[in-house]
Amino acid sequence: MRKNLIVGSTLITTAFFAQSCFSPQADNAQQTDKLPNIVVIFADDLGFGDVSVYDAGKIPTPNMDRIANDGIRFENGYAASATCTPSRFSLLTGQYPWRNEGAQVLQGDAPLLIDPAQPTLPAMLKKAGYATGVIGKWHLGLGNGNVDWNQTVTPGANEVGFDYSYIMAATNDRVPNVFVKNGKVEGLDPNDPLEVSYRKNFEGEPTGKDNPEMLKMMYSHGHDMSINNGVSRIGFQKGGKAAQWVDEEMADNFLAQAQQFVRQKKEQPFFLYYALHQPHVPRVPNPRFAGTTGFGPRGDVIAEADWCIGEFLKTLEVEGLMENTLVIFSSDNGPVLDDGYADDAAEKVGDHTPWGLFRGGKYSLYDAGTHVPLMVMWKGHIQPGVSEALVCQVDLFASLAKLTGQPLPDNDSKELLDVFLGKTENGRESLVVEGLQHKTAFRQGDWVLIPSYKGSPRVTWGVDMETGFSKEVQLYNIKEDKAQQNNLAQQMPEKVKALMADFQEVLK
Ligand code: NG6
Ligand code: CA
After folding, report:
1. Which atom of ligand 1 is nearest to the CA of 222?
2. CATH top class, domain 8-194+239-431
3. How far, in Å, CA of 329 to CA of 346, rounded?
């Protein structure tokens, strides 16, 4: 058990905020004086064991560790899904991803996944008087399915609650390789229009498949289409050359944007969703970090991400905002080694265990798919500690609504503010997590139930990863058997039955 979880007076202040002062009807100006800034820093494919504070990590991550050491480190923090789009959908909407058929890994020209009429975390905070911004990876679709990248791309992040957006449309391995600022491609030369297709190449444009001599990093599967900056990607693009990103500069670019957002919005409460692109493929660190960890590019971009977090925290400090800013750090899904480029991730992993002690990783219904690093820091308001509570990123919506005096949403998000602030360990009783193809598992207490599923037990596109699918029903005690090696389903049919009944209740 944790002791002295909250400094007495600050807790009273927080409770006071939540209960009386911040009624949704209250005058915004009055509220905004006291509301804390909220920053969600969200890594891409960073595993539980990639963060050195979680014991298993061999790559030093002093700045991520600092958030944990100065705040609450969650030992049972989950993403809602083992891939990016569905996980981010849940973070921003408070809804389980499998309730939305379209919430699957999206291509770079996919339409906006979130209905602008649907309640979102940023829109809720905007109502509470926050300046809201998203910087970094989006991957929730843009436009209406027929985007002209040379015009304003809409609807997008700005239509679902963000006042400011500076984003990559999808992933760093998908076209278009440009930044979209408030719906406009940044740095586009009107004389060199940008065209994007996921169906066929544009006449005469080189590809990784046909022009491997142009590549500085070889693909291992997929990723053999249009080339930008010596890296071939998924999808085809033509033109827009002046706007295309340089991977090595991406971290500095997003960081500068995040710092600028803080400096510009510091007078009012702000909500910043700082969505790092690391350690997703292609892993191309700034030369300052290349070769620094001994774990190959995957290790080096984790070091780079950690540095970005450190610089960002320094900005909060310099601006005098540390004690008035709630910082949440997590990852969208579990880790993967070879995810489509020959970048030595598997060869150089050594005794580093990105998945910690858990089974599986990205794409997997096993625990490491969704069991991610999660930590919350709020200087002077949270007494540092470790929490065993079961929590999910989907719960941030309701919990932050509570913090800011907004009505609680009517969705899958559970109000766990006191848990996130380290005041209690009464987290969720149960949670549904998602693997590939909207297939789900049920965690209740220390038990995990994976129903019988048809489908390949391994990811089929060359990634060395278990999907978690099996014809056998699987039941694990995750506390005693973190690595999910001991399937107890045969032995404990009554437990399976009881869990299945509760699981079905949620799935309705
Ligand atoms: C897969 C890609 C993978 C990655 C993933 C999305 C191939 C072979 N694999 O389809 O490289 O981009 O999609 O990752 O193309 S996520 O973190 O955004 O969910
Ligand atoms: Ca991801």
Report:
1. 8
2. alpha beta
3. 26
